[in-house]
Design goal:
Layout: E1 13-17, H1 28-37, E2 42-45, H2 54-71, E3 74-78, H3 81-87, E4 91-94, H4 101-108, E5 113-118, H5 121-130, E6 134-137, H6 154-164, E7 169-171, H7 180-185, E8 190-191, H8 195-198, H9 203-214
Parallel strand pairs: 1-2, 1-8, 2-3, 3-4, 4-5, 5-6, 6-7
Helix pairs in contact: 1-2, 2-3
Length: about 220
Amino acid sequence: MEKKSTKPIFPTGIYGITAEKFSGGRSNLEVVRAMIAGGISILQYREKRPRKSFAAMLEECRAIRDITREAGVLFIINDYPDIALLVDADGVHVGQDDFPVNEVRRLIGDEKLIGLSTHSPEQADAAVQAGADYIGVGPIFSTQTKDDVCAPVGLGYLEHVVRTSSLPFVAIGGIKEHNLDRVLERGARTVCLVTEIVGAPDIAATVRRLQAACA
């Protein structure tokens, strides 16, 4: 009998990402709890060295894994498949210059999600061939959240992915509440807003409002 896959299903709605430097002095754990209180269903831990040591990130991810597991929220770790394995996260997200998808798959197995950031139609096509489970599409608009961010890809690339890609995707990069409708109108069903959420005075209320807009 063929074994049934237990790989998580990629959800629609708001995709949360931690960004402690933009969180107004609040810790990642505080922000995660508030996002979950707002109804988020998928959350990515993103922390770039050398801001934190591996030991500190591991400790933080273990705590977030406990919180997300209890809440039934998917937990993705950016860049670090080793930490994802150690805390039993639901998946890993990598960029074009990180470990290749096939190598990450060898490490984490077939039951966890792998997301891959893409910035062009060619990269979206390659993600399918590489075996990614979902792709990031962006940055849609200009963003300063990441230090090494590429130029905005614009709404045209998003429209291309909506028309042609067989993979689920998350639209990301410079998306704010005031331009969210432009992204949704073009067919995005999972959307990431980083600073708009982690920097909000009331994170839970902001997530609820954004989730309602997506619905």
